[in-house]
Amino acid sequence: MSVPLDLAIRGGTVVTAADMVRADVGVRDGKVVALAASLPDAREEIDASGLLVMPGGVDAHCHLAQPSYGGVSCADDFESGTISALCGGTTTIMPFATQARGERLRDVVDAYHARARGKAAGDYAFHLILTDPTPQVLGQDLPALIADGYTSFKLFLTYDGFHLQDNEVLNILEVAQEAGGLVMVHAENHDCIAFLAERLVRQGKTAPRYHADSRPQAVEREASHRAIALAEVAAAPLFLVHVSAGEAIEQIAWARARGLPVFAETCPQYLFLAAEDMNRPGFEGAKFMCSPPPRDRANPEILWRALQNDILQVVSSDHSPSRFEGPDGKKAHGEHAPFTEIANGIPGLETRLPLLFSEGVNGGRFDACRFVALTATNPARIYGLYPQKGTIAVGSDADLVLWDAQREVTITNADLHHNVDYTPYEGRRVTGWPVRTLLRGRTVWNDGQVLAEPGEGRFLPCGTPAPVLAQRAARP
Ligand code: MN
Ligand code: MN
Fold first, then answer.
1. Strand ranges (E), 211-330
2. Which of 79, 115, 132, 476 sits CB 3.0–4.6 Å from 119 for a disulfide?
3. CATH architecture of 1-476
């Protein structure tokens, strides 16, 4: 007699990046062990009739428990951040372990592990942020960390204290290429932003809306193209984070048409918000400030098309939580602070999936399989977490979201679980909502009820990123 199932989820429609099929899902020891038209009795039964059963979301870009910067605190730690993610149907997150110049990478990683331990309620992996590519980092620390499962790292082409020179980017790309890591780039031109911001401030144009004027599309277009060219020269794959601009999309499409291994994500703020949201009266516009900034109202259609055509492969939140009120939030320097002193970043761990499903799937732009690819399967593959994460298959972790594709919800911050005092999507109507989330077979969110437990989340060492594997396979 075979061992009984721990859990059977019956009557739902199972959606993966490849298929949509009516099937029951059997779970044992936190793993999917059966997909079948019908399954024997289990210890726990869930009726999923009328619901989609999708892989738990993988949010490959978010910021949690980072040190305060310019007096502004990161509002979410690993507890509130992961719980908010789980309530929004996301079971795996990839926050950043950020190196300050002068810090040893291994110490940075240890510090972020300490922040996550005992607090994370969902599973997590880390990207590194490299700001100080010393010979020690390049020759020793980075290859060793790649071997230990930190296989992706972000570089900045802008921000004081972060931005790297082209020669530094090339050196890092070379190490990544040799050691099997994937370089992610924040692509904006540092000197252009400094030049424009300084001029705007001199002219007295300091309100939040001028943030967008200080970082026009050309700034992102140039840096995107430069990152692509540097990766081509170093013969390394490249991932462009938080692509906002139609003109950057042109560069990515150009690179991919040439057969270059260039991959990219966008975020809900670029699909749903616009620069004119920063025109709201008073200080309200600060709620919509992030970098790159949301663009004009015509821009999102270009991004939607890029999601349809696989110019973009991933949708991440870039959850960057600053509170609005209070001395450690966006108002830290007062309501008349110039835009150059206002904290950047928008919260979005919990709203990423409902927004994308509502406009993407129910809006007729792509099917639920593509939704799963963009929000779970592709990020898991690109960052080396697949097939443990990002799909529903025998042997995968039983990270599942039960989705009511017809439920209509008005997003309001009072219903969200992050530690931020606003959402930029306040009052927005969406159709489709995660009614139940399971992490490794255990229900952690059940239609308004939070059952997630701090400390239940596990660290995930990443394997070799799919773009690196593909490149190696193609080499003669
Ligand atoms: Mn960034
Ligand atoms: Mn970010």
1. 238-240, 262-266, 314-315
2. 79
3. Alpha-Beta Barrel (3.20)
Give the H/E segment covering residue 433. strand 429-439
pLDDT confidence of residue 67: 87
Going from N- to C-terminal start, the domains of the chain cover 1-476
Task: Output the CA 209–ligand 1 centroid distance in Å.
Answer: 19
What single-letter amino acid sits at 411?
Answer: I
Strand order in the sheet with 52-55: 20-22, 13-15, 52-55, 400-410, 429-439, 442-446, 449-450
Please name which ligand lies nearest the alpha carbon of 63: 2
8 Å CB contact between 325 and 331 = yes
Ligand 2: distance of its center to the CA of 353 in Å? 18
Cα of 354 vs centre of ligand 1, distance in Å, is: 23
5 CA distance to ligand 1 centroid (A)? 43
CA of 318 to the centre of ligand 2 (A): 5
* DSSP code of residue 418: S
On the question of a cis peptide bond just before residue 387, with omega within 30 degrees of 0, the verdict is yes
d(CA 76, ligand 2 centre) in Å: 14
Helix axis angle for 246-257 and 299-308, nearest 10°, is: 30
Q: What is the 345 CA–ligand 2 centroid distance (Å)?
A: 8
Residues with CB under 5 A from ligand 1 (ion): 186
Distance from the CA of 161 to the center of ligand 1, in angstroms?
A: 13
* Residues 22 and 1 sit within 8 Å (Cβ to Cβ): no
| Ligand at shortest distance from the CA of 74 | 2
Distance 202 CA to ligand 1 centre (A): 26
* 283 CA distance to ligand 2 middle (Å): 23
Measure the CA dihedral 143/145/147/151, to 10°: -90
Amino acid letter, 265: E
pLDDT digits (tens, 9 = 90+) for 304-357: 999 999 999 999 999 999 999 998 899 999 999 999 999 999 999 999 999 999
